[in-house]
Amino acid sequence: MSLRLSTVILPYRRWHEGGRSSWTRAEQLGFHTAYTYDHLSWRSFRDGPWFGAVPTLTAAAAVTERLRLGTLVTSPNFRHPVTLAKELISLDDISGGRITLGIGAGGTGFDATALGQEPWSPRERADRFGEFLPLLDRLLTEDAVSYEGDFYSAHEARNIPGCVQRPRLPFAVAATGPRGLRLAAQYGQAWVTTGDPKLYENGTPEQSDRALRQQSDKLADACAAIGRDVGELDRVLLTGFTPDRSRPLESVDAFVDFAGRHRDLGFTELVVHWPIADSDFTADEKIFERIAMEAPAQLKD
Question: Which residues pair with 238 in a beta bridge?
Answer without folding.
Answer: 271
